[in-house]
Amino acid sequence: MHKAIKAEALQFSDAERIESYKRYFKCIPGAYGYGDTFVGIKSPELRTLAKKYRGITLAQLESLIQDKIHEIRLLALYILVLKFQNKKATTNEKKQLVSSYLKNLDFVNNWDLVDSSAHYVLGAWEFQHPSETLFQLATHSNMWYNRVAMIATFYHIKQKAFELPLRIAELLIENKNDIIHKAVGWMLREIAMRNQPLALNFIREHYTAMSRTTLRYAIEKFDVSLRHDCLKGTF
């Protein structure tokens, strides 16, 4: 099944898009995406295939997640999300999907892969079944694990449950990776859109430790005068 699905997906590949994808996902030597393989398949085409193959087995799904081609891994994650969100999925089936996701987390190794899956699967599960998983991921040496931990809390933020997202943000606030600075800033911005005083208080408390990237992302939706005050640290 892996070969058949992959062959069908590859029909949508476009060599002219490959180089732009490589630049976009930082596949140059020394960058975070170096070594990844792209074939130039657009996301909408992958989503269409995901709907078609949402009924594949967990073993078949894991085989796709472990593929060397970036877009095939993304396809697998789209399928995983559809399976998890299926209204007929039992708690045990969802638990198995989350376990599979965590087991194969090393293959969720770029920001689009993380952002397309973390809050839909792991975040949704942790909201209903809290554990130490997100804290373990946030303190891991792997930056993609760190991003998974932060983005997973987007589910909580959408439920207006801000305590966990802020705790994870606090763990990552001094992280040195730009990819994490953006993730933390993004989630703080989402919190601010729902509870600006809470987000502003967090920014104030962690202002000196926070990267400028995180700060700029976090205050993006503030009014102009408050945004300027935050940038100057005079709020």
Overview of the molecule:
By secondary structure, the chain is mainly alpha-helical. It has a domain at 1-109. Helices cover 66% and strands 0% of the residues. The chain contains 16 helices and no strands. It has helices spanning 2-10, 15-24, 43-52, 58-65, 70-85, 91-103, 111-115, 119-128, 133-138, 143-152, 154-158, 163-172, 178-194, 196-205, 212-218, 224-232. α4 (58-65) packs antiparallel against α5 and α13 (178-194) runs antiparallel to α14. It is globular, with a radius of gyration of 19 Å. It starts with a helix and ends with a helix. 37% of the residues are buried.
At a glance:
The chain has helices at residues 2-10, 15-24, 43-52, 58-65, 70-85, 91-103, 111-115, 119-128, 133-138, 143-152, 154-158, 163-172, 178-194, 196-205, 212-218, 224-232.
